[in-house]
UniProtKB/TrEMBL annotation:
It comes from Streptomyces kaniharaensis. The lineage of its organism: Bacteria, Bacillati, Actinomycetota, Actinomycetes, Kitasatosporales. Residues 7-18 have a biased composition (Pro residues). InterPro entries: DNA_clamp_sf (IPR046938). It comes from the Bacteria. This is Uncharacterized protein. Gene3D superfamilies: DNA Polymerase III, subunit A, domain 2 (3.10.150.10). Residues 1-24 are annotated as: Disordered.
């Protein structure tokens, strides 16, 4: 559907959420937390409302029937996020201005669970979002947004050249923090934009072009610092340390695998006499599923803190000292962990000492 939205009314008041949820005949359905995440990733790249290009002072939505794309740029950086749709009955494009996109973003973030979904319905001059929590309608903007597809295609298809040294403007670095903790970076040539990419995210930032000076080189950089470095060598130096990768995807996979394997093991022993094995498999599956669901919720509520916590947890698992940490935590909380262990060992030893009835 090619929509021709009317311009947003100047100085319009904030939209009021309305209770209830009605069926939208041509709705686009997306998870509420994914809509909020997609907006979080691109909003830092919007142009200022006083920009000479007012259509860039907002977020552009591009629904292609499979993904909802959010796009923002001030011509210095460009950011595009995408999220897979739950359902879509039509394709559309529109832009929402900076003030009203903040209202929509806050409304989407307010949904408490990852299972909450939002229906987006575009009519002339208005984008309406509806969920079980209520409804919000925001005006859309007139005008053409940046040709983001053509820009990405141009620079992704650019032949790669050796890049000795390139420069970037650090005032734009903070924008990328909202895109995710880990981003891939590539550059086709010293004059080409940096391409930054993560899961369902891609962006561009132009390098700084030298004016009235020679382009910097790696050899020149080494020569400039030679007197400060002196004769030092770096063969035995292991700094800076590499950053930890995102443990969440691998941990999620392991937890789901544990649920399924525990369920299969449980099916295999059900009906037998080994009640301890039945209980162990049931408990392992239940605990893995509980951990998986909690991880999902935490990544929705605070994905960056969750990544940092998972990096710590992954380190503890690799070190193998988590039983000692669990013992210390239990004591700190006022429990008696040694009594737990003693009780378990006594019950286990008593079971071992009990003769197994003879079978005929």
């Amino acid at each position: 559907m090619a929509c021709a939205p009317s311009p947003a009314a100047p100085n319009s008041p904030p939209p009021e959420p309305q209770p209830g949820r009605t069926h939208t005949p041509m709705a686009t359905t997306i998870a509420a937390h994914q809509l909020a995440e997609a907006l979080t990733q691109v909003m830092p790249h919007m142009a200022h409302p006083t920009s000479s290009t007012p259509t860039l002072a907002g977020v552009h939505f591009a629904n292609d029937g499979a993904h909802l794309h959010t796009v923002a740029t001030d011509r210095h950086t460009l950011a595009v996020a995408r999220r897979r749709l739950h359902d879509c009955e039509d394709e559309w494009n529109t832009t929402v201005g900076a003030v009203h996109i903040a209202y929509l973003h806050a409304w989407a973030e307010a949904h408490p669970t990852h299972s909450d979904t939002v229906d987006l319905d575009l009519q002339a001059g208005q984008l309406t979002a509806t969920s079980t929590a209520g409804r919000i309608a925001v005006p859309t903007m007139d005008g053409v947004h940046a040709p983001w597809r053509a820009l990405l295609a141009k620079h992704l298809d650019h032949p790669c050249e050796p890049v000795d040294v390139s420069m970037l403007d650090t005032q734009y670095l903070a924008r990328w923090a909202q895109a995710g903790r880990h981003l891939q970076i590539t550059q086709a040539s010293p004059e080409a934009p940096y391409i930054l990419a993560g899961p369902d995210f891609i962006g561009l930032q132009m390098p700084v072009r030298p004016i009235l000076q020679e382009a910097p080189t790696r050899a020149g950089l080494a020569a400039d610092w030679a007197t400060s470095i002196g004769g030092a060598t770096g063969t035995d130096v292991d700094l800076p340390l590499p950053a930890d990768g995102d443990a969440a995807p691998a941990m999620t996979e392991d937890l789901l695998k544990q649920v399924l394997i525990s369920a299969q093991d449980l099916y295999d022993v059900v009906g037998g006499e080994d009640r301890a094995a039945i209980a162990a498999h049931a408990r392992a599956g239940a605990h893995a599923w509980t951990a998986h669901r909690l991880l999902q919720v935490l990544r929705v509520i605070d994905p960056r803190t969750t990544e940092l916590a998972l990096a710590d947890i992954n380190g503890e698992l690799e070190a193998g000292d988590f039983p000692e940490l669990a013992f210390d935590d239990a004591e700190t909380l006022g429990h008696q962990p040694q009594a737990w262990v003693d009780s378990y060992l006594a019950a286990r030893d008593a079971k071992r000492d009990t003769p197994t009835p003879a079978t005929v």
